[in-house]
Amino acid sequence: MNIYVGNLSFEVTEQDLQETFEAFGEVASVKIIKDKYSGQSKGFGFVEMPKKGDGESAINSLKDKELKGRKLNVNEARP
User: Fold this and answer.
1) What is the pLDDT, as a whole number, of residue 79?
2) How many angstroms separate the CA atoms of 52 and 15, rounded?
3) Would you say the pTM of this structure is higher than 0.85?
4) Which residues touch 66 (CB under 8 Å, ≥6 apart)?
5) What is the C-alpha separation between 11 and 46, in angstroms, rounded?
6) Which candidate, 29, 6, 34, places its Cα nearest to that of 18?
7) Count of helices and strands (H, E) across the chain
8) Contact 6, 44 (CB under 8 A)
């Protein structure tokens, strides 16, 4: 299951996201989207979780949770 994570603080790292989502199950991959010129985070990313149930419980639990001072916007990624 591919999960969109938005409204990320610029201080959040892929490691931070990995640890946050691992509380709900196995994480296959984490990608924070960055500006290709400056390398600055664009404030959103994607987390891939192999089990749909784990992904759904992560989405339900993390919606509106704070990470490094900002409320997360979490939902299933659209293709």
Assistant:
1) 84
2) 21
3) yes
4) 72
5) 16
6) 29
7) 2, 6
8) yes
